Amino acid sequence: MGSDCLFCRIVAGEIPATVVRETDTTLAFRDIDPKAPVHVLVIPKEHYADVATLGQGDPALAGELLATAAAVAEDEGLLGDGFRLMFNTGAYGGQEVFHVHAHVLGGAPLGPMLCR
Ligand code: 5GP
Ligand code: ZN
């Protein structure tokens, strides 16, 4: 991947993003169209299409992604009231960007998990 992938281009610094945390292997930045008072995306710098591919291909990196997401939640003050960590995956999951990303959502009650 690389030039064809929006989030690889953010990792490369070719597209600006509001970065809130960076490690050797992960990057966290604010969603451009926030759906909650706090809405941060956490990605591995290495390209994996979705959480299934990442989880099976590099479980250690998946763990680092979770650790970064937890640190973001702490930095954003979400640990007390709680938050939602979400991986939209594939067509039925509503995934739009095919570079795996965890949505860290919080700052207000988020309602039911799914609309019915
Ligand atoms: P998905 O639907 O794939 O789970 O989520 C993709 C997310 O990426 C959406 O919440 C969308 O607002 C966000 N997004 C799309 N393009 C950009 C961008 O250029 N910069 C940032 N920071 N977020 C983006
Ligand atoms: Zn990518």
Automatic annotation (TrEMBL):
Q: Which CDD domains match?
A: PKCI_related
UniProt-listed PROSITE patterns: HIT_2 (PS51084)
Question: Gene3D superfamilies under this entry?
Answer: HIT-like
Q: What InterPro entries does UniProt report for this protein, alphabetically?
A: Histidine_triad_HIT (IPR001310), HIT-like (IPR011146), HIT-like_sf (IPR036265)
- All copies of domain HIT, residue ranges: 6-115
Q: Which residue numbers does the motif Histidine triad motif cover?
A: 99-103
What Pfam families does the record tag this protein with?
Answer: HIT
- Coiled-coil region: none
Q: Which PANTHER family match?
A: HISTIDINE TRIAD HIT PROTEIN
Instruction: Write the protein's name.
Output: Histidine triad nucleotide-binding protein
